[in-house]
Write a structure and sequence with these properties.
With about 250 residues, the protein is α/β, with parallel strands linked by helices. It is about 40% helix and about 15% strand. α9 packs across α10. It is globular. It binds fe (ii) ion.
């Protein structure tokens, strides 16, 4: 079982595939990466896109029918990449989708250029209501890149972290690779996912990313990341490695 917890495979909902044909090519790229389950996470509550839970569920069912017709052996489950917007806590009561119907895990995206003032409060309230926040691609956030200790604090407060396969592979530049490697070394990464958008421009890359982790870190990290992603599908608890602070670290 290999699960990708963050991708944009649903056609026509956001900046992912524009057509069913493109979505099917992306699905084939998932299968060739050994992926068995994709959790489709279209953008939600950001400046451009709103994708209600109903729309996502219908799109997932529609795309799964296309997979079945074409013998594409890939399970697809619903989710959302939820932007940390001012109204996120109101939506929490009404229309936010947990990953893979887990009733537990929520994928949260921060802006790239700053940290919203309510971030810690959102992390706290989400957990108070029984959910676990997963912060996606911290490597894209300018402040978190400069202040790794801040991310450590989010993890200590109960957030889980997902980095993008392409960042670890160096496709987004050397500094992002260095940063994601540092996070792994400090046990601040719980998931590696594709954030796939397009079968050529932003494909799945999980196979290469896990080969890289095996070579540069160890096979036990690969197992850890894969098992964590499986827990999302089962809705079970992750046992995170203890985070290591950047203060007094030699
Ligand atoms: Fe994304």
């Amino acid at each position: 079982m290999l699960v990708d917890i963050h991708n944009h495979i649903l056609p026509g909902l956001d900046d992912g595939p524009k057509s069913i044909e493109e979505a099917l090519l992306l699905a084939k790229s998932a299968v060739s990466n050994g992926i068995t389950h994709v959790i489709a996470t279209p953008h939600h509550l950001d400046a451009k896109y709103r994708n209600s839970s109903l729309e996502v569920r219908e799109a997932v069912a529609g795309l799964y029918r296309e997979f079945s017709k074409r013998n594409i052996h890939l399970k697809i489950l619903p989710g959302q990449e939820i932007h940390l917007a001012a109204n996120i806590l109101d939506e929490l009561e009404t229309d936010l989708l947990t990953l893979a119907n887990s009733g537990k895990y929520l994928l949260i995206e921060l802006p790239n250029a700053y940290i919203p003032s309510q971030t810690l409060e959102v992390i706290y309230i989400i957990q108070l209501k029984g959910y676990i926040p997963i912060i996606v691609h911290p490597e894209r956030n300018k402040i978190l890149r400069k202040n790794k200790q801040l991310l450590y604090e989010y993890v200590c407060k109960g957030a889980l972290i997902q980095v993008t396969a392409s960042s670890l592979l160096g496709l987004n530049g050397r500094s992002l690779r260095k940063y994601t490697r540092e996070l792994i070394k400090h046990n601040l990464v719980h998931f590696i996912s594709s954030d796939a958008h397009h079968y050529l421009k932003r494909p799945f890359l999980l196979k290469k990313a896990f080969e890289y982790v095996k070579k540069e870190f160890s096979e036990s990290y690969v197992t850890y990341f894969c098992e964590n992603a499986s827990h999302i599908v089962y809705g079970t608890d992750i046992q995170p490695l203890s985070p290591i602070s950047f203060k007094n670290y030699y």
